Amino acid sequence: MTENERPELAAWRERLARTLDEQRVEARQRRHAKGYRTARENIEDLVDPGSLLEYGQLAVAAQRSRRDYQDLQSSTAADGIITGTGTINAGLVGADRARSAVIVNDYSVLAGTQGFFHHKKLDRICELAEELRLPLVMYTEGGGGRPGDTDVLTQIAGLNIRSFSTWAGLSGKVPRIAVNNGYCFAGNAALFGCADFTIATRSSWIGMAGPAMIEGGGLGKFDPTDIGPIEIQEKNGVVDIVARDEAHATALARQLLSYFQGPVETWTATSQEGLRDLVPQDRRWAYPVRRVIETIADTDSFLELQRIFGRSIITGFIRLQGRPVALIANDCQQMGGAVDSQASEKAARFLRICNALGLPLLSLTDTPGFMVGPDSERVGAVRSMSSLFLAGAALSVPVVTIFLRKGYGLGAMAMAGGSFVRPVYAASWPTGEFGGMGLEGAVRLGFRKELDAVAEPAERETLFQQLLARMYEVGKATEAAAHLEIDAVIDPADTREVVTRALEAAGAFNNNRTWSTQT
To answer: Tell me, which fold does domain 7-258 have in CATH?
Structure first.
């Protein structure tokens, strides 16, 4: 208290101070001892300096009837959840487009559990985010519902809350990014899984129930680290991006959010001539398609999602001349680029989110089609692969498709939004080849009688190669363009310019934040 300061002002300062790390020494030390950051350290790193407007900072757990009130003010500071508005990336995209909302669950408060006032704060900021069209970043570490809020006498199960439906209801309205480090169980995991995009550190365990609930349900006794380790959740696609630690996760959250905040003024791009030689002359050889993506995109602008889930399709974001674009691409180093069930589900979900949030789409296609066979059908191929057509049919954003090499069958159609006439521009590199199915299969199926008539294996192989070469000539890119099945054949070195011009012509860059103006 300073000299002549009014006592109520001094009391307010003291009350606020009890919520901050400086007075919560033991809680801060426990976090640092584990190599983790405090909730306030994360929020200070995420939000631009001086821009945070906090909501509900003075809340405490609804446990006044069982615990000392002054102790609650520090030990249950903000009731375990910091919420507010501010700007993120203002220096990159400008203050107006950087406006955001933030939610940070505080594990140092009752293991990050969700209490009565905790839920009220969460609901309040989600409702504001919808009203003000603010993207949301949420840190989800925590143990789910809290049974110890004894002040609440007007509920039994406490299931008449809105938090989960309110958060889920923001889907397609504003971008939502969930970030996790540490344990994330039950209700916290439900929030994590409902996000549009998920980031988790290597020190993450994410599950729809924690050890106590699992044991209580008679399902056995497990350590927290047995439940949903990052190795599992990365492989099954629950986590979009795996980060080294909280600092890295926060940097990734800022980068991911930036694609939905619009263009940046400063950008560079590498020489494009190298694209001419990235596809091997031998059409049977694979090549690293990520090199194609990184060459076409602005330097260091490519951010990939779900890298080891559904690996035959790559999903992510790039920038072209500073402007954000969603991207899907076949990876011919994975099953030859064939689209399997996991890849279909991954790409369909990605398309739905990016369409709802207004990002134009670039598809780099090189696929022999959908993965077929009995094993594929055992995992629901018909349903999952069809979902890619449903997502494509619902697209309202401009799509540009560039065929790098193979464009065969239903899989290639699905990669182009459902049809080769769906994109605003569909072009191929000279290495492109097209057909209703893969050339080898088409020859074996269409010329079976002729091949079976040749008894000597070497002669049969010679005939097969002759028929294959003939099919290739019929289905090569220039012939597809001549028959108007695609719009053009382009120099690979012109890909970046062609895609940019096509999206410009379609008005794709007029407003990258369509979600911010919806009513």
So the answer is: 2-enoyl-CoA Hydratase; Chain A, domain 1 (3.90.226)
Q: What is the CA radius of gyration of the chain?
A: 27
Give the tokens for residue 303. Answer: 């951010």
Q: Are 292 and 275 in contact (CB under 8 A)?
A: yes
pTM comes to 0.92
> Tell me: the pLDDT tens digits for 239-249?
999 999 999 99
Domain 273-432+476-509: top CATH class:
alpha beta
Note whether 409 and 445 are within 8 A (CB).
no
**In the Cβ-directed half-sphere of 370, how many Cα atoms lie within 13 Å?**
27
Distance, CA of 458 to chain centre = 50
d(CA 348, CA 421): 19
Helices (H), 243-307: 246-258, 289-296
Where are the domains positioned within the chain?
Answer: 7-258, 273-432+476-509, 438-474
**Distance between CA 408 and CA 336 in Å, rounded?**
12
More confident residue, 406 or 472: 406
Q: Which residues contact 447 (CB under 8 A, 6 or more apart)?
A: 467
Q: Which candidate, 164, 153, 148, places its Cα nearest to that of 113?
A: 148
- Rounded CA-CA distance 510/309 in Å is 33
Q: Which residue has the tokens 């097969």?
A: 464
Instruction: Find tokens 């980031």 and name the residue.
Output: 199
pLDDT above 60 for 518 = no
Residues 364, 40: Cα–Cα separation, whole Å: 41
Tell me whether domains 7-258 and 273-432+476-509 share a fold.
yes
SS3 state at 161: coil
**Of 41, 485, 8, whose CA–CA distance to 245 is shortest?**
41
* Mean pLDDT (whole number) for 298-317: 97
> Which helix (DSSP H) or strand (DSSP E) does residue 330 occupy?
strand 323-330
